[in-house]
Amino acid sequence: MARTVDAEAYAAKRNEILDVMQQFMFTQGYENTSIKDILRELEISSGAFYHYFDSKPALLDAFIARIKEGTEISLLPILNNPELTAIEKLQGFFDTLDNLRMENRADIVKLSRVWYTDANAIVRQKVDEAITRQRAPLLAEIVHQGVQEGVFSTPYPDQSGEVILSLFQGMGNIHAQLLFSGDQSLSEQQVIEKIIAVYDAYMNAIERFLGAPTDSLRRSNDVETVEMWVKAAKDDV
Questions:
Q1: How would you write the chain as a 3-class SS string?
Q2: I need a labelling partner for 41 at 20 to 30 A (CA). Which of 121, 195, 222, 228 fits?
Q3: Is residue 48's pLDDT more than 70?
């Protein structure tokens, strides 16, 4: 007789393993984490682990899938709202992701110090690729709407998602370097000014690529937001 599987219990244990993997990934890095570390932390056997994941790469794939599912829940209501213009959807898209990060900024700052090390290089690349595959079509859909509305004039709406995400990933990397480099030659105010300047430059590039009105995609509370991130990074030292 085949053994019945309690779907809820199975999902709970699977998520528990993922939580521990995430904990190690953000404290010592993916490359420095072994399946034995996870077994020791959870006090389970290798057989129990392989009941849920057949390898360490499979665990990484599940971790990435969970990230995608979490953000999709927040983004789809904005994208599917027929009452929003393309600019409102794009602003909402960026604001939703920013708000998710802001709500967890203390944890994100702590984790980012390991996230941007060589020990997580493979994870970062895979996460970036997965996010691009997930979000690029969503962004392209918004851009096509904007072209139809006459607020965007890019000749490359089909490629717009990849371009926008590439710019955002580049901007994020520079922001992380400024926040976590520990460059003592820069004052707190200089770090804030540099982060804002990078943000302005990249948003200007996105607006120009889309042919969007100047400053139509920028937030009004840039300085306040950056100050909170810099303070969180300083408090974590």
A1: CCCCCCHHHHHHHHHHHHHHHHHHHCCCCCCCCCHHHHHHHHCCCHHHHHHHCCCHHHHHHHHHHHHHHHHHHHHHHHHCCCCCCHHHHHHHHHHHHHHHHHHCHHHHHHHHHHHCCHHHHHHHHHHHHHHHHHHHHHHHHHHHHHHHHCCCCCCCHHHHHHHHHHHHHHHHHHHHHHHHCCCCCCCHHHHHHHHHHHHHHHHHHHHHHHCCCCCCCCCCCHHHHHHHHHHHHHHCC
A2: 121
A3: yes
More confident residue, 102 or 222: 102
Q: Measured between alpha carbons, how far is 38 from 40 in angstroms, rounded to an integer?
A: 5
The domains found in the chain, sorted by start residue, are: 1-54 (1.10.10.60), 65-235 (1.10.357)
CB contact set of 175 (below 8 Å; sequence gap of 6+): 195, 198, 199
Cα dist from 219 to 3, 78, 141, 216, whole Å: 55, 17, 22, 9
Output the six-digit token pair for 73: 């829940």
Phi/psi at 16 (5° precision): -65, -40
What's the predicted TM-score (pTM) here? 0.81
Structure tokens at 63: 């971790």
